[in-house]
């Protein structure tokens, strides 16, 4: 019968997915719009087109108008997996292995940066700003989105370009790494300290309710504060936890009482406040320098499909 799914009521706005003959001996082109005006005896829909002609079509030859509009905009969107595979300029291992906190069961989490060809932005179907994959432990950002988040002192982004475990680095990737000081600023105080504070409030609720927080999460929050302290004092982001490894792993195993962990956190917050008063970091990142580099990347990526 050529009919699948719920029957479309008379008056439904539809779009032809394929060419169909009209009632006057002509052809209604793919993409022609109209409204359902009835159904033939063999189950085909009669569509009155906007120019007054009529055409018949099976259900799978029609799209709802709103759905078709979305399909048209998205149909030429670049493939995310291909962008990561062919246009990654930098990738590094992050997480426990980069922090020096890995154990036998630790995952290998990889984060990357890819540059979508400039011409991809000229289409209605824009390239994705981030892509999951090629496997479940790999995540990538398009370079513009990466720069935007890193300039806001997002710890996850800053740690990518400071990781000691580089997986891939092209000449453009080398340029990105050379810019990493341009992303650093006093905004790190708020992003690091503010995030830890908000998360500890949730963990305290877990502790009161269950008698035990998620200790692995607690460990990584303390690690963030340690990293922020070094960043504010020395102006350098150090990813590896160095001499704090064993104490942090003890936190992860739940071997340090909550009250002691809380004192450690509060002391680190106080140290961050003191460090902020005399930090060598600029008040804001060097947005102009990063933007100039991004513009140059876009120019060099024209025709790089």
Task: Describe, in plain words, how this protein is organized in 3D.
The structure is a single chain. With 305 residues, the protein is α+β, with helices and mostly antiparallel strands. The chain has 3 domains: 13-74, SH3 type barrels, CATH 2.30.30; 95-180 and 288-300, no CATH class; 187-277. The chain is 43% helix and 17% strand. The chain is built from 11 helices and 12 strands. The strands form 3 sheets. The protein has a 5-stranded antiparallel β-sheet with strand order 6-5-4-1-7. A 5-stranded mixed β-sheet has the order 10-11-9-8-12. It has a two-stranded antiparallel ribbon with strand order 2-3. Helix 7 (187-210) packs antiparallel against helix 8. It is elongated, with a radius of gyration of 28 Å. The two termini are 44 Å apart. The mean pLDDT is 91.
Q: What's the arrangement of strands in the largest beta sheet?
A: 6-5-4-1-7
- Overall shape: it is elongated
Structural class, by secondary structure, is alpha+beta
What is the number of independent domains?
A: 3
Percent helix among the residues?
40-55%
């Amino acid at each position: 019968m050529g009919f699948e799914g719920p029957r479309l009521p008379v008056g439904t706005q539809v779009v032809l997915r394929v060419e169909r003959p009209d009632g006057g001996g002509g052809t209604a082109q793919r993409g022609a719009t109209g409204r359902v005006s009835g159904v033939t005896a063999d189950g085909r829909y009669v569509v009155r087109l906007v120019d007054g002609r009529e055409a018949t079509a099976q259900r799978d030859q029609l799209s709802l108008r709103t759905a078709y509009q979305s399909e048209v905009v998205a149909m030429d969107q670049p493939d995310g997996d291909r962008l990561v595979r062919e246009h990654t300029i930098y990738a590094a291992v992050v997480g426990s292995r980069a922090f020096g906190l890995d154990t036998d069961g630790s995952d290998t989490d990889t984060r990357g940066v890819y540059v979508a060809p400039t011409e991809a932005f000229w289409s209605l179907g824009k390239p994705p700003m981030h892509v999951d994959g090629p496997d479940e432990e790999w995540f990538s950002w398009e370079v513009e989105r990466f720069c935007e988040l890193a300039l806001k002192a997002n710890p996850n982004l800053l740690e990518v370009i400071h990781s000691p475990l580089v997986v891939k680095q092209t000449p453009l990737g080398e340029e990105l790494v050379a810019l990493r000081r341009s992303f650093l600023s006093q905004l790190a105080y708020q992003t690091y300290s503010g995030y830890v504070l908000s998360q500890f409030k949730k963990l305290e609720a877990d502790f009161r309710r269950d008698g035990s927080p998620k200790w692995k999460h607690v460990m990584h929050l303390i690690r963030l504060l340690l990293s922020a302290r070094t960043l504010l004092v020395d102006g350098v982001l150090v990813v590896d936890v160095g001499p704090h490894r064993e104490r942090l792993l003890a936190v992860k195993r739940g071997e340090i009482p909550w009250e002691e962990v809380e004192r450690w956190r509060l002391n680190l917050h106080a140290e961050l406040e003191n460090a902020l008063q005399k930090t060598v970091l600029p008040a804001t990142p060097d947005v102009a320098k990063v933007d100039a580099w991004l513009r140059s990347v876009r120019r060099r990526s024209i025709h790089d499909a």
